[in-house]
Amino acid sequence: xxxxxxxxxxxxxxxxxxxxxxxxxxxxxxxxxxxxxxxxxxxxxxxxxxxxxxxxxxxxxxxxxxxxxxxxxxxxxxxxxxxxxxxxxxxxxxxxxxxxxxxxxxxxxxxxxxxxxxxxxxxxxxxxxxxxxxxxxxxxxxxxxxxxxxxxxxxxxxxxxxxxxxxxxxxxxxxxxxxxxxxxxxxxxxxxxxxxxxxxxxxxxxxxxxxxxxxxxxxxxxxxxxxxxxxxxxxxxxxxxxxxxxxxxxxxxxxxxxxxxxxxxxxxxxxxxxxxxxxxxx
Length: 282
Prior knowledge:
Among the domains are: 62-85 and 94-105 and 115-188, Collagenase (Catalytic Domain) (3-Layer(aba) Sandwich), CATH 3.40.390; 193-267, Collagenase (Catalytic Domain) (3-Layer(aba) Sandwich). It is 25% helix and 10% strand. It has six helices and nine strands, in the order H-H-E-E-H-E-H-E-E-E-E-H-E-E-H. The chain is elongated, with a radius of gyration of 26 Å.
C-alpha cells in the first residue's frame, strides 16, 4: 500500500521532497472535572428521549400521515405503503408473513456490484479479489441490504427482496419515530395488522365507507401470526379512517368495543417486539 516515489510530483521523473509532519498540540488527554462525565451522559440520554418524543406530539394517526406523504409518489403501492412486487415470484410470496427465504441474515463481509459495471469488468474484479481468498482469511460475498432514501413518500417492500432494497422516508413527511418503525417492520416481513387472517374477529371493515377502487387495500391475508394475539396497539395497525370516502367516516371499527384506539404512531407495541424476536429467533 506504499506510494511510488514520484507520486504527485510536479514534473515527470522528479521525486518530491518529503515534509515532516508537524507535532500535534491538541488538548487531548486533559482530565475532565469530577462529575462531568456523568453529567454529560445524563444530558445525552435526556436529549435522545426528547428526539424520540418531540415529533410525535401531534394527533395525526399513522395511516393519515403515511397516506398524505405518499400522494407525491409515482410508485405503485399496495395498502398505502407497500411497494408492488416486481416479479410473479414475489406475488406468490407476498401474502405470507413468515417467508424463511427472505429472512436469511446478512453477510458479515459484503460485496455489491453496481449495475453499471459490465460482466468483463466484474470478472477482473473477481479475479483480483480471489487473491484475498487464497492468501488471507477474508471472504467477500454478495449481500442483501436496506437502503433508506429520501424519495417521494413513506414506503417499503414486504420482507427481503434481495440485493439493494429501497425503503423510502421522505424528509418532509416520513421522518417520525413511529413511521420509521412502521416501514422497517414491513422490510422485516410484517403485514398491516388489520390484514391478519383472523382480523374479522377483532375489527369490522366498513365497505360502504370505502371507495371500491381502494377495497383491495383491505384484503385479508393468510398470515402466520406467530401464536400472538391480535394487537390493536400495533404500530402496524391502520387508523380507523384509512381510505375512507368521507372525512369522519370510519373504514375500520374495532369489535366488540368500537371505542378501542387504533392507528397509534408512537412506536412499536409490546407484541410488535415479541413478534420480531420470535420471527428472527432472538
